Amino acid sequence: MRPSVDVIIPVHNEAAFMPGALHRLLADIERVAADITVILAENGSTDGTGELAERLAAGDRRLRVLRLPDPDYGAAMRAGFAAAGATWVVNFDIDYFSADFLTSALALAGEADIVLASKRAPGADDRRALLRRTGTLGFNLIIRLLFRSAVSDTHGMKLIRRELIDQLASQVISTQDLFDTELVIRAERRGARIAEVPATVEELREARSSFLGRVPRTLRGLWKIRRALSAEARSDV
Ligand SMILES: Nc1nc2c(ncn2[C@@H]2O[C@H](COP(=O)(O)OP(=O)(O)O)[C@@H](O)[C@H]2O)c(=O)[nH]1
Ligand SMILES: [Mg+2]
Question: Is the pTM of this model over 0.85?
C-alpha cells in the first residue's frame, strides 16, 4: 500500500520565488511512491504570498493553504502539523526540498519514527559556502554539548510519524528556525527512533537572513530551550 504523506512548507513573503519552486516540487514528487498532499503554511506576508498560494491551490488538488495573521515560522509549522492527516509528515522549505530525500526516508520508515536529512552524515554533499558549512558544524557541536544530542544535523528536511508529531509539536516553545532543532531534541528525549540520511544541499537562492546576525538570537534561543527542558525535568520528578 502506498504511504500517505503531508508535506508542510512554511512560506513568508515568497510571492516571487514560490510559483516556480512549487511547480518543480509538484513535478518532482510525482516520482515518489506515496499519496502526497502539500500544505503551504503562510503567515504575515506583505507581498501577496497568501492570496497567490490560495489561487494556486484552487487549481490543484494536491495543494492546501493555511493562513495565519502574524509572521512566525514556528507557529506556521505547528499549524501545518496540526492540519496534517497523513501517516507521515515531512517538512520542506520552499527553497530546499528533495523528492529523493522523501523516497530514501520512506524506505527507512519501518525502522524509524523520524528520519532527518543530514548535511553532515557520511555521504552528504553540502555545496554551500564555507561560512555556512562551518556554522552548521559549530551549531551541531553546541547541540551535542548542551543537550547530549547524538544526531549530526537538526535543521533541515525531516520525515516524522504523525503520532510522534502530534505529541511533540505543542510542546515546542521555540519560534523561528529553532523550532526544528527543539523538535528533534524533544524526539530524542522521548526515545523516538531516529534515522539520518545524507543530504545534497545546493541553495536555490542566496540565504535571506544574515548568518552572523542570527548567531546571538540562536544562542539565546538555545539557552531558553535548555532552561525549559530542565524545568520540565524537575517538575516530572
Ligand atoms: N510561515 C512562515 N514561513 C517562514 C517565515 N520565515 C521564513 N519562512 C519560510 O521558511 C523557509 C526557510 O526560510 P529562508 O528565508 O529560506 O531561511 P534560510 O534559508 O534559513 O535563510 C522558507 O520556506 C520561508 O518562506 C515566517 O515567519 N512564517
Ligand atoms: Mg533558505
Answer: yes
